């Protein structure tokens, strides 16, 4: 059993949105022993920090997970092949193959004596039959069973949650699992097919404003409901849950549910325009309604994600606006979305 370097923190998926933002937060609080891992080539990493140990490794491969985990004390497995509904609905096998990453990372964590392991699960584990109304059902942790997760992506997440539990129960590896509810914010994917609704809607409003097209294409009827969690709350929640005694998977999401039409209202308000809405009922829609029931996180951590959507969306809109103009200028510093892989 390898020896863990007491301080070494390994973050997988570090070239992506949440992983990159988590590495940035660790640095901001003075952590230096950080190993950032992603399979993307470095020039496609959303955020890249020279003073961090950066590894571009495909973590589907067992031997690469061994390299990534060597000497680690804490491992944050934030790596997955994922995206919004536009991606997960059309890439179910790819999404399920992320099981290789989590399984190999757990085995490597055990082999190399890591002490703590954080796994990023998702609201997509929840039973689809409980999300068949536009009146956003507040999903409690127990609503994942009996199981009827989101096809592909949701089942991988549910299976990997259970793998984490069994590694804790059978081998004593401290595992913590959070179910993320639609994370958004600066440094997130905003074009290319993997983007989620907040970024997509901001991009479309910006495009309509800059190009004067005055109309916006919305997937579904716009009545679908969701809660969206700002990235800073996600980072804080990861820390609180990793440092807690919470053994079972727990919701990490905002409890401020809105319809997609209301999300568009907010983006228009930020842009100072009103657009003609074109609804595409054949586009990927996912569940009708979803919200995060935060009773458990409130009870156990006396906190819940609380950045109002209007506040987070404003920052996200302006970040995407600058990215959009930079892309128009052909500026290489634009976050580049590779449609091939992102884990
Ligand atoms: N992506 C996207 N792009 N969604 C749109 C758009 C658009 O231009 N216009 C309307 N929507 C609608 C979708 O049809 C869906 O009903 C809703 O916004 C949210 O779509 P989403 O953000 O892509 O993803 P979901 O919340 O449905 O599902 C996501 O849940 C996350 C966990 O909360 C999953 O795709 C994963 O990203 C993750 O599990």
- Adjacency order of strands in the biggest sheet: 3-2-1-4-5-7-12
Radius of gyration: 19 Å
Number of strands: 15
Distance between the termini: 27 Å
**Count of separate DSSP helical elements:** 11
Helix fraction by DSSP (H/I, runs of at least 4):
25-40%
Distinct ligand kinds: guanosine 5'-diphosphate-beta-L-gulose
Following the backbone from N to C, one meets helices and strands in this order, namely EHEEHEHHHEEHEEHEEEHEEHEEHH
Compute the average pLDDT: 95
Low-confidence stretches: 337-343
Structural class from helices and strands?
alpha/beta
How would you characterize the largest beta sheet?
7 strands, parallel
User: How much β-strand is present in the residues?
Assistant: 15-25%
The coarse overall form would be globular
